[in-house]
Design brief:
Structural class of chain B: alpha/beta
Number of strands of chain A: 16
Largest interface: A-B, 39 and 40 residues
Number of helices of chain A: 17
Largest sheet of chain A: 5 strands, parallel
Distance between the termini of chain B: 26 Å
Strand content of chain B: 25-35%
Oligomer: heterodimer
Radius of gyration of chain B: 18 Å
Strand order of the largest sheet of chain A: 3-2-1-4-16
Strand order of the largest sheet of chain B: 6-1-2-5-4-3-7
Shape of chain A: globular
Helix content of chain A: 25-40%
Distance between the termini of chain A: 46 Å
Number of strands of chain B: 16
Shape of chain B: globular
């Protein structure tokens, strides 16, 4: 008998005032009882509409059935057969626009809390620290994966499960890509990422850190000299954009990438970190996406007195997940909507002192379907700030494309790859994730990694 | 792990280390750099590659002990290892077609200038080198420069070695003598590179300056190392580190490099206490 409650079990969270000053995870997770009861809200529809919304096609009703019976380990196995990173996805996937949006229970109430249940099931599995994972039988084929973010990890995991010898080349000193340098600890604890990556290592995936492909080895060398039969490029969209307004190179102006890398990868928020970060009093974050929310909430946790979001459209158009916006608001981030920076001002020592913006109105919808912001003449105003963080997007890093013979790219830098298979203009070379699409989500990158793994398997056909 | 094969003290503040990293040694060209970490909690430090030995798989770094991170690196001995070494990063110095060059190094920057002078010498260019130091006890690489230079002028601020004065004085006298150069390459403190660039601008000599900006990833991901060149924002890590000295906004670069001075002073004091224990 399903649980007929129209509401989801709410996610227990840390108190907003307290969590705004610490880096511990905001969401505390369901108890086993809450998880079982929430899973029982699933009607187990024959048509499984939710699965169509999942970029990696997890058999959601099957895992919910196991969870509803309290068998979380079986539930985990259902998820793990489709996803390499369940504990990550349960935290950072935008379920509200994917699986949960298609849930039948959502028609007359709230959808089943699929994301929260995925998180619970994955955490229950990790807590048992099951380390005797079976190594699949080797099939004798070698594949290289460039980048250890969500796309690369997924591609590597799927290929390793099929018996491929997979080597991941990571440019930084730590594996995980955006999961370790971008998404903050309070949304995605780094210990969780590490556990998921350890799982891949136990499956036989080799991870070589400090390897900047394009400099140390080219893709041609990997294929011609090192015996890799296929290469998957999942190098992400790491190149930060700036607005090209006066004052952007003043001290105290960060790209969101730099600010978040200092905080998350280099742990600059810890007192004994060797990497410095500005301890600012008034911070202005330019942008309205998830990265902007992450930067703003990190700034609060670094004990800023005031943190402002500056976004040129209105609340409705904020591209960040609703939940992230709500969390930021609860924690005290101030939203300056419908305004756009035109310059940043500094003092004699070239330290940031303020940011000047203009007010915007909304006109007709543009190509993205969102109403186009229009400057209101004479509406300039100045916001005091000793730190400005530019979170207005990133582009693919050009290093690999510029060092690989005949790898076709878009004018904006994205690698051109087949939407179904990830096949690029070079035989044997596949690409996926932000390197292809520009900045998008973890789960879309994972979907692309998964598709490319299937295509590589078809090509090599062992 | 990357083993330290050899360590040598070049002067009281400058150390040379040969690290075993055959894959990097095989690829590195003069002008490129590495990023290393001294320990598992360490900062990522960019250091330009001073030399490579491809046969033995060695990468040489020469660094000045200027802060906490370099103090900790200097505390390592031959036989120890460091956990992380990524490279080669950045673009190699472009020396194609250069027949007459002046290489102007200052302080520890001479460690980076030397491989460039050597490469120019090996490709048959006429190389005039000027190397400057505060005093004779800080002088490094004099013999190495002499071996690859058609002419070498050593300058010290106090006159305790070579001629007394700044590297710009020596460059001015070389230009006054009627020497003509296809390219001047300057590597050293920002203030020195600024004045070298101002001098060569007046004389119309193309000039490259090697920018030692603060970096984190070194792959173009963070934009921390950005600078203004010819009115445009460029990243030292991927677009450089060499840029047209006549186009660089040196005032901005100097301000950006001083951003974490207070933090550095505290970290330095902390490490000093640790190393004394």
């Amino acid at each position: 008998m399903p649980n007929l409650s129209k509401q989801q079990h709410p996610m227990p969270t840390q108190d907003a005032k307290r969590r705004a000053r610490n880096f511990s995870e905001v969401a505390l997770g369901y108890t086993a009882e809450q998880a079982t009861s929430e899973a029982q809200r699933c009607l187990n529809c024959k048509t499984k509409p939710c699965v169509a919304g999942c970029p990696v096609q997890i058999d959601i009703p099957a895992f919910l059935t196991e969870a509803a019976a309290g068998d979380f380990e079986s539930a985990y196995r259902v998820i793990a057969s489709a996803s390499s990173l369940p504990a990550v996805c349960g935290r950072v996937c935008p379920q509200e626009t994917q699986c949960e949006q298609l849930c039948v229970r959502g028609i007359k109430g709230e959808p089943v809390a699929i994301g929260r249940l995925e998180r619970y099931v994955a955490d229950a599995h990790l807590a048992k620290s099951d380390t005797n994972q079976e190594q699949p039988a080797a099939n004798g084929h070698k594949v290289a994966v460039i980048g250890s973010g969500p796309a690369g990890l997924t591609c590597a995991g799927d290929l390793a499960r099929l018996g491929y010898a997979v080597t991941i080349f990571e440019a930084l000193h730590l594996a995980g890509g955006v999961l370790v340098y971008g998404i903050p600890e309070f949304r995605l604890p780094k210990a969780i990422v590490e556990q998921e990556i350890d799982g891949l290592r136990r499956m036989g995936v080799e991870i070589r850190t400090n390897m900047v492909i394009g400099r140390i080895f080219s893709i041609d060398e990997l294929m011609q000299e090192q015996g890799f039969e296929a290469v998957f490029i999942g190098s992400g969209a790491g190149l930060p954009r700036f607005m090209n307004i006066p004052g952007e190179n003043l001290n105290g102006v960060y790209s969101a990438n730099e600010f978040l890398t200092r905080v998350n990868l280099m742990k600059a928020y810890q007192a004994d970190s060797a990497t410095p970060i500005l301890r600012a009093k008034k911070v202005a974050v330019v942008g309205g996406g998830n990265v902007a929310m992450d930067a703003a909430r990190c700034a609060l946790r670094l004990h800023a007195e005031e943190v402002h979001i500056v976004y040129r459209r209105s609340h409705t158009e904020l591209p960040a997940r609703r939940e992230e916006v709500e969390h930021a608001e609860e924690e005290g981030v101030i939203f300056n909507l419908l305004c756009n920076p035109i310059s940043i001002e500094g003092d004699a020592q070239r330290n940031v002192r303020s940011i000047t913006c203009v007010r915007m109105g909304l006109g007709e919808p543009d190509a993205s379907g969102r109403r186009r912001p229009i400057t209101i003449p004479g509406s300039e105003f100045t916001l005091e700030a000793d730190c400005v963080i530019m979170a207005i997007g990133t582009s693919p890093n050009p290093l690999i494309a510029s060092t690989t013979q005949s790898l076709a790219t878009e004018s904006w830098g994205g690698i051109i790859a087949d939407a179904e298979t990830g096949q690029t203009s070079r035989p044997g070379v596949y690409a996926g994730g932000d390197a292809v699409t520009g900045a998008a989500t973890v789960i879309l990158a994972m979907g692309a990694g998964k598709n490319a793994a299937a295509a590589i398997h078809k090509q090599l056909n062992p | 792990m990357y083993p330290i094969i050899r360590k040598a003290v070049l002067n009281p503040t400058v150390t040379r280390m040969d690290l075993y990293a055959p894959h990097i040694a095989a690829k590195a060209e003069p002008g490129q750099f590495v990023i290393l970490r001294v320990d598992e909690r360490g900062e990522r430090i960019p250091l330009t590659i001073a030399d490579t030995d491809r046969e033995r798989g060695l990468v040489t770094i020469i660094f000045q002990i200027v802060g906490a991170a370099t103090e900790l690196l200097n505390a390592k001995q031959a036989g120890d290892s460091i956990p992380d070494l990524a490279g080669p990063l950045g673009r190699p110095t472009e020396t194609d077609g250069i027949r007459r060059a002046a290489v102007i190094g200052g302080g520890v920057g001479c460690a980076i200038a030397w491989p460039v002078a050597k490469k120019l010498h090996e490709q048959g260019a006429c190389v005039h080198s000027v190397i400057g130091f505060r005093s004779s006890d800080l002088l490094i690489l004099e013999d190495e420069f002499a071996a690859v230079s058609d002419r070498l002028i050593v300058m010290t601020d106090d006159g305790s070695a070579g001629r007394k004065g700044l590297v710009t004085h020596a460059l001015q006298s070389l230009l006054d003598e009627g020497n003509e150069y296809d390219l001047v390459i300057t590597i050293g403190p920002l203030i020195m590179m600024k004045f070298v660039s101002e001098l060569t601008r007046k004389n119309g000599v193309p000039t490259l300056a090697s920018m030692n900006s603060i970096m984190i990833d070194g792959t173009g991901m963070c934009g921390c190392c950005r600078l203004t060149v010819g009115g445009k924002t460029r990243f030292a890590c991927v677009d450089g580190p060499d840029f047209d000295g006549h186009q660089i906004d040196f005032e901005e670069a100097m301000a950006r490099n001083s951003m974490y001075q207070a933090f550095e002073r505290n970290a330095h004091a902390h490490v000093c206490r640790l190393l004394k224990l």
